[in-house]
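Section 5: illustrative case.
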C-alpha cells in the first residue's frame, strides 16, 4: 500500500524517508523499503507521518499494518466486555454487508444490452 501510493505520487523512497522521523531523526530509504515489503512494523507515530507525507487515509495505513488507531484502542478499553462484544458484532455485520455489496457490484452485468 505504501509503495503503491508513493509511486502514484512519483515519490522516491529517499524523499519519503526525509519526511518521516523516528527517534528525532529521518528514517532511511532502507526502512521505507522494509515497510513497503512488510518486513518492519511501524509504530503509530510513523504511521501518522506516512499518512501525511503520502496524503493517504491513516486508518487504511493502520489496517495495512495490522494495528488499531490509538484512539480506537483507547475507546475500546473504556468499554465493558459486553459493550466490546456488541461493538464487535456491529463491526462484523458492517464488514459482511459491505463485502456483499462489493461482490454484487463486481458480478453485476455492466450497463447496456446486447439485444437488438
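Designed sequence:
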Amino acid at each position: 500500500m505504501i509503495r503503491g501510493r508513493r509511486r502514484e505520487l512519483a515519490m522516491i523512497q529517499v524523499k519519503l524517508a526525509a519526511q518521516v522521523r523516528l527517534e528525532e531523526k529521518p528514517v532511511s530509504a532502507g526502512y521505507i523499503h522494509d515497510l513497503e515489503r512488510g518486513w518492519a512494523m511501524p509504530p503509530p507515530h510513523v504511521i501518522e507521518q506516512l499518512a501525511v507525507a503520502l496524503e493517504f487515509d491513516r486508518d487504511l495505513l493502520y489496517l495495512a499494518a495490522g494495528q488499531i488507531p490509538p484512539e480506537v484502542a483507547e475507546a475500546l478499553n473504556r468499554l465493558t466486555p459486553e459493550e466490546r462484544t456488541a461493538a464487535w458484532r456491529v463491526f462484523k455485520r458492517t464488514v459482511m454487508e459491505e463485502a456483499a455489496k462489493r461482490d454484487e457490484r463486481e458480478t453485476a452485468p455492466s450497463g447496456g444490452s446486447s439485444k437488438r
